[in-house]
Specification:
heterodimer, A: about 425 residues, five-stranded mixed β-sheet, 17 helices, about 45% helix, B: about 325 residues, mainly alpha, 15 helices, about 70% helix, globular
Chain lengths: ~425, ~325
């Protein structure tokens, strides 16, 4: 009698435990079930950026109120640091929302994992900046309202004092000119380091900022024909040359092996002469320096200046049960006035000329127009392969090791070995 | 699993010849309710343990022998020992093992010693003793992430520590770039870690100290024992059990070094601060290689088990 009772009790506890864990898994599903045809959910990484979130929300509000709305969109915002984890977690539980935003280079990875469905938009994407449209295996999976562009900032007065010309799109600095400019700027004795490359950056900044320099040398993160191996591209002569040059900037005392936490602020506080950063810092720098600010293209290290393409973009998930409405909303959000509103809030580069015309700074002759030209002229997409997240971590570690003084060839060979093994263990990332 | 085994073991416990358990229970009408409330009290913890400790652990052991990935459309396949073969040929893993051993070998004696010294200092009755207890304990209640961020600024080339060094040596000593130099990065993390966690073990030592009967000290004083002799022959033997506890907890915590590294150095420069857990998190989440991360975790599990088993053996009751 009593034995039976304890057994029942034990079983029910075990059952409760199981139910508990199942319920925990099932929690996310409630949103999917209520997500009928009338309401769909959209996730964004912009929780930490009130201006960007407000711009997105106002587009959603106007869509929800419009007569043609095919569904009510509900925005859920996440902090950027935990956004990717949330998506991956939701995806493994099969509970993704209908619309997600994605960091551009991750699109092939998510498309390969079947998180995303190819876009079928009524909006015309042919006039978009190429780097705002994410394609994989011939299909478009995501589209961005804008892009960002790497560039170099300096004070015109400093350059004049050192006798260095201002680099232009038509005539960027060459490697020799850059070396010469740094030598002359250092000789002014104004700063401990004349150059700030943002070497304290971590995560995606490392491949975003430094792989274009490698590409300008003639190397790359991976061989782009088939994306099956990094051998020769990431550890070839050109790559080793890049590593020696990059490490040399620190060895010659031109830049810190690890810069300050806020490179932009350091530049504005006159702690560095040249700042290598993204267009997002443009407005702040112009506000502080006014006409003295020189915005220059990245250095031509042999194959022309290169900058990374693609920023945050929007995609529709494959599990969405109202794809029609999701596509409709995305098309709506790409209207020039909506793009312009988002760009004003984020400080990016508008994806289209029509949107640019609505923002004075980006219209012809505007102060930020130059970033749009950088993007058009120099943008190289980070390799469009599902292996990219892995390549990015390996390259980021290689950059840090090279700066810390490791032998470049050894470090790059090790990265290539790891990348090739990863691609092989995933069956070449073929579908 | 454990919950279902426990009840079946109970009836078997009484030796033959005793009253049968059923008969014994019948004599005590309150027993059923007692047992019910017992199970009720276990239930919340059991559920949480099952869901968040046992299940993931078992899953992790299983995944270590597959090619599972965080994101992948491909089916999971059994790959045998592949992950371990890769792990044991990875120089970064051996470096991580070395780093963790280095960390533990320094932190365990220094931190427990410092904590004991602090406990002895504040195990007195004088005005304001609570103030000092609070001050020593304060770093413990501050999150390690916050502490790491603060020390990140102090350790910078132009940070507080180097400024102090320079000021007090009248400019003779120019401090290192602590976290960016392979030679100083790990010692810097060790110093911070000891500072942060010593207060916690101080509290455990303090509890041990206060469990030693005051009569023993009185007797020792009557016998004319010096302060050192009192410590050597009364305090130290009296702390036997506390010692084991502190030793085991510090060692396990030291082996699990992660937060400081993740915030301050990301394993760099040149792998000088990378640790086993950091490698597991990096592979599992940043590089999406769930199975490889599981293999690292499994090795870590075995390592912790071994180390604590050895410690338990060395500190066992010998009589």
């Amino acid at each position: 009698m009593n034995k039976r009772f304890t057994r029942i009790l034990a079983t029910s506890i075990a059952a409760a435990a199981l139910m508990g864990s199942l319920a925990a898994c099932g929690k996310g599903s409630s949103s999917a079930t209520t997500e009928g045809t009338k309401e769909i959910t959209m996730w964004t990484h912009a929780a930490g950026n009130p201006a960007e979130l407000a711009a997105t929300q106002s587009i959603v509000d106007s869509y929800n109120k419009s007569s043609g709305a095919k569904a009510q969109i509900k925005v859920q915002a996440f902090p950027q640091e935990s956004y990717n984890d949330s998506v991956v977690g939701a995806a493994s539980a099969g509970k993704l929302p209908c619309i997600v935003d994605i960091d551009g280079p991750n699109v092939p990875n998510w498309a390969w994992a079947k998180y995303l469905t190819p876009l079928k938009l009524s909006a015309d994407l042919s006039k978009n900046l190429p780097s705002t449209v994410a394609k994989w295996q011939g299909e478009t999976y995501a589209v961005g309202h804008g892009d960002v562009a790497l560039s170099m900032f300096a004070r015109k007065s400093d350059l004049a004092a050192a006798g260095v010309r201002v680099a232009t799109i038509e005539k960027p600095w060459t490697k020799e000119e850059f070396q010469d400019a740094l030598t002359k700027l250092k000789a002014l004795g104004k700063w401990q380091y004349p150059l700030d490359m943002g070497t304290a950056g971590v995560g995606e900044w490392l491949p975003y900022a430094y792989s274009p320099l490698l590409q300008s040398f003639g190397g790359d993160l991976i061989n782009r024909d088939g994306f099956q191996s990094a051998d020769g591209a990431l550890n070839g002569d050109k790559a080793v040359e890049w590593a020696a040059w990059f490490r040399g900037l620190a060895d010659q005392g031109f830049m810190a092996k690890k810069s300050g936490k806020d490179s932009t602020q350091d530049f504005l506080n006159n702690k560095s002469g040249i700042l290598y950063t993204g267009s997002w810092a443009g407005d702040k720098a112009r506000k502080a320096l006014g006409k003295d600010l020189a915005v220059m293209p990245s250095v031509d290290l042999g194959n022309g200046p290169k900058i990374g393409g693609a920023s945050w973009q929007w995609g529709v998930t494959s599990g969405c049960n109202n794809t029609d409405a999701a596509m409709d909303y995305l098309s709506y959000s790409l209207k020039p006035e909506n793009v312009a509103a988002v760009i004003k809030a984020t400080g990016g580069i508008p994806a289209t000329d029509e949107a640019a015309a609505l923002i004075p700074a980006f219209a012809e002759g505007g102060a930020n127009r130059i970033f749009m030209e950088f993007s058009r002229e120099f943008a190289v997409m980070r390799p469009e392969t599902p292996a990219y997240p892995f390549i990015a971590t390996e390259y980021g570690k290689a950059v840090q090791d090279i700066l810390a003084g490791a032998d470049a060839k050894t470090v790059l060979d090790k990265a290539v070995k790891a990348i090739d093994a990863n691609i092989k263990s995933n069956g070449g990332y073929k579908n | 699993m454990t919950t279902t085994q426990l009840p079946s073991r109970r009836p078997a416990a009484p030796a033959p010849g005793e009253t049968t358990p059923a008969a014994a229970r019948r004599k005590r009408p309150g027993h059923l309710r007692e047992q019910l409330s017992g199970w009720g009290m276990i239930a919340p913890a059991a559920v949480l343990l099952l869901a968040f400790v046992f299940l993931p652990a078992i899953l992790g052991f299983g995944l270590a022998f597959t090619n599972a990935r965080l994101i992948s459309p491909r089916p999971v396949e059994f790959v045998g020992m592949d992950n371990f073969a890769r792990l044991f040929t990875d120089p970064t893993f051996w470096r991580a093992l070395l780093n963790v051993s280095y960390f533990a070998v320094v932190v365990v004696p220094v931190q427990s010693g410092l904590a004991l010294a602090m406990a002895l200092l504040i195990n007195k009755k004088f005005r304001g003793v609570n103030f000092f207890r609070t001050v020593y304990f304060l770093p413990v209640v501050t999150s390690m992430v916050v502490v790491s961020l603060l020390w990140l600024f102090m350790y910078r080339k132009d940070g507080l520590i180097n400024e102090l060094l320079s000021t007090f040596s009248f400019g003779l000593i120019q401090g290192a770039d602590w976290l960016n130099d392979p030679a100083t990065a790990m010692p810097a993390i060790i110093a911070l870690s000891i500072w942060q966690a010593a207060g916690f073990h101080m509290i455990i030592w303090l509890a041990g100290l206060q469990s030693i009967s005051g009569e023993l000290y009185e007797a020792a004083q009557l016998d004319g024992a010096s302060r050192w002799h009192q410590f050597r022959y009364v305090t130290w033997p009296g702390l036997k059990h506390t010692r084991t506890l502190v030793l085991v907890t510090i060692t396990i915590q030291a082996l699990g070094l992660f937060d400081q590294v993740s915030v301050m150095t990301q394993g760099g420069p040149l792998d000088s601060t990378t640790t086993i857990i950091y490698e597991a998190v990096r592979s599992g989440f940043k590089q999406q290689e769930t199975s490889y991360a599981s293999a690292i975790s499994l090795v870590f599990f075995v390592l912790v088990l071994l180390v604590s088993a050895v410690q338990r053996y060395l500190t066992r009751e010998k009589d």
